[in-house]
Amino acid sequence: MTNHLGDIQRSKCIIIIGANPAVNHPVGFRHFLKAKEKGAKLIVVDPRFTKSAAKADIYARIRPGTDIAFMYGMLKIIFDEGLEDTKYLDERVFGIDKIREEAAKWTAEEVENVTGISKELLVQITHEVAKNKPTTLIWAMGLTQHTVGTSNTRLAPIVQMVLGNIGKFGGGVNILRGHDNVQGASDMACLSENLPGYYPLNEATWRYYAKIWGVDYEWLLGNFVSKDWMHKTGLSLARWWAAALNGKDGNDAIDNAGTPLKALVVMGNGITSTAQQVKVKEGLEALELLVLADPFVNEAGIIAERKDGIYLLPAATQFETSGSVTATNRSGQWRFKVVDPLYESMEDQEILFELAKKLGFYEDFTKTLRDEKGEIVWPENATREIAKAVRSIGLNGWSPERLKKHTLYWDKFDEVTLEGKDEVAGEYYGLPWPCWSDKHPGSPVLYNTDIEVAKGGMGFRNNFGLEYEGESLLAKNAPLNSPIDTGYPQITKDNIEKVLGITLSAQEKEKMGSTWSYDDSNIIATKCIEKGIVPYGNAKARAVVWTFKDKIPLHREPLHSPRNDLVQKYPSFEDQKALYRVDTKFVSVQQAKDYSKEFPLNLVTARLVNLNGAGMENRASMYLTRLTPEMFCEINPQLAKEQDIKAGDMIWVHSPEGTKIHVRVKVNPGVAKDMIFLPFHFTGVMQGVDLTHNFPEGTKPYASGESANTVTNYGYDIMCQIPETKGGLCRISKDGK
């Protein structure tokens, strides 16, 4: 989130694309309703008429996978009618002319043809968004889980920048995370293309972390096949199984240092909630070793029909642990332990400590976690290490003491502004990053130049040079009361004296790192904040990203499109070699045939309010299970009538991959006639075969069922490999044929 949930109450207009916070974030949704009470307009754009849509002033049903076309349609109207913020664009955005050129192609007629949203509704939505500022734009997985998910999440901020809504109270782009601490997991490198804090995989970063961890760089290097592989992106969560299958039997080829994946350790991740579950099952069975650490039996161990090489480790729940987590708005929170781990369960770090002992690097692994007596201080020293290391997003100012204090005095913070009073006066709740020092209050709204740097103000980051193709990338404005009233580069050891107009002592120069993000002394950040300068510089946001496959976002039809007539006009990407180490198909799948002839129905998946992710812990509760006792699909009444299907019937849902699931029917007019909706919280049954006999005695949940992801289609984002579970096709039958 650039802003935070409470800040939504300051919005004059809220547009939600691909999210259903009334169901998935019911506590946070009260901020949306409070904004409505204050007069804000609520707009929902979604393939389904959801509970959030039921609260909306305007609802638009959009064809899955066409969000880019819709947003360009908005932009064309904004540009044609002169509704853009020209001053903001001139001062703070690079490459907007390329966006203008693309937007000009998207007439209201073409937008309606591609998205299904009428010209009248498009104009109405655009005017509401453009004329009721500040507007906040909300999204979740409905916008991200596509082959063009990265492009979707680029164009949404561009819309907001065109309107001048980024860096404004009540504005911004606000992504609703799906789980507790997803933001923290992302910050700590749950993605395989970086190290903690989004640091790149290069020698400078590895040497930096070797210093932070107190280990020898050469020892780290020795754990890789070669230096080249130390710098390569790893496998993704979505496609690890391809490495286990090793390109055999027609599976996508891999480039994994000449070896298949042989062992998998899963800690608290419901991998049954990822796409292509039949392939996941095959991958699990191909492994030599599978270790599952979870408070409940991870159903990856159930669908994998194997009798050896599989270990279930009982892990503690969040109530049996303590430490820092990061909320969706970048605020840190301290979690206090409620009870000690029950029975034989262990906290995650204890499991990892035991693993490190067996592998022979326990002492190095825990070196920075120990006090002067050699005792591990957990979790406080882990949080201190994170704060020391992760300068890149400004965790410098976090400490166990500050985060604990905020949690204990949470009632002293204003829910709309996050500002504290009394014991926590002068700080924002949770010290939302960047929090540059132990005196900095945190930053409740990213990229806000209307306030001083010392109070959370900043421009956009300078991370891609000073110019591109002869045009400056530096901003033309600066945060309030900055001594430099225009753009400037990121601050380094070499330029700090010149940019800040200061003189450093020899001792300071000796301690200082090469740049603000590699300076574990924090001298650069401290000097910058004292001067009212942002350590990462002050640049323009890039509407044109020359390092991406598409320099600007472009509409590309889903790989399995119901509109084959549009596939040639809006083709997918070229097939990719070794994308996250796995060859990945795009256009060859998309243009192989007209899938819509055999599979005429759009397939969409989403969450339910009482279930979470793979649903293991929720379906183990008899009370939550009563709300959703079995897997189901929702279909439109007209489709049900045409197919002679009644509510309560069991039907088969078939995918283009040749997979199928057997599910109960619910009839819902909120689902379009050409659509099937599936919740993705179930597993334990696969293609009609009950696998729950594989549960250890006494661990079978109260509800099991088919996984929606058995029939979600092949397709992965071009940049991050998130699966295209929100844009695929299917067909239904009563007899399984």
Summarize the structure in words.
The chain has 737 residues and is α/β, with parallel strands linked by helices. Among the domains are: 5-175, Dimethylsulfoxide Reductase, domain 2, CATH 3.40.228; 181-371, Rossmann fold (3-Layer(aba) Sandwich), CATH 3.40.50; 591-733, Barwin-like endoglucanases, CATH 2.40.40.20. Helix content is 29%, strand content 14%. The chain has 29 helices and 27 strands. The longest helix has 14 residues, at 67-80. This is Formate dehydrogenase.
Descriptive keywords:
Rossmann fold; six-stranded mixed β-barrel; 14% strand; 737 residues; Barwin-like endoglucanases; 27 strands; Dimethylsulfoxide Reductase, domain 2; alpha/beta
Form type: globular
Strand content bin = 5-15%
The proportion of residues forming helix, as a percent range, comes to 25-40%
Structure annotation, total helices: 29
Largest sheet: 6 strands, mixed, barrel
Q: Cα-atom Rg, whole angstroms?
A: 26 Å
Across the major sheet, the strand order is 19-23-20-22-21-27
Give the termini distance in whole angstroms: 45 Å
